[in-house]
Write a structure and sequence with these properties.
By secondary structure, the protein is mainly alpha-helical. Helices cover 65% and strands 10% of the residues. Strand 2 and strand 3 form a beta hairpin.
């Protein structure tokens, strides 16, 4: 085991060094906390709801082939996440409104 004997001057020096280190850590912690607050106000969490092709086809009462055609004609554009093809719920609802308007014309 290691033991160390300190003089009174050494103890005071050690205390002041520890105080400085603790103060620096506290300042850094405060700085990081304020940065986290700024970051959380700048970043908007993703709240979009996504639907699968089958869900969209049932909701719009169209076939999967029609969804393919709409994708080619850029009427309803899906997102590809990995191997999955998904549609934003907002986009689907807009397509439903367009479909209702077109059917009334």
């Amino acid at each position: 085991m290691f033991s160390l004997l300190l003089t009174d001057e050494g103890k005071e020096l050690l205390k002041s060094v520890i105080r400085e280190v603790v103060q620096e850590i506290m300042e850094k912690t405060t700085e990081v906390d304020s940065q986290k607050e700024n970051f959380s106000t700048c970043v908007k969490p993703i709240e979009d709801k996504f639907l699968t092709r089958n869900e969209v086809s049932q909701k719009l009462k169209v076939s999967l082939v029609t969804l393919n055609n709409w994708q080619k004609n850029e009427i309803l554009i899906p997102f590809k996440i990995g191997k999955r093809i998904l549609y934003k719920l907002d986009d689907v609802e807009k397509a439903m409104l367009r479909q209702k308007v077109n059917s009334k014309i």
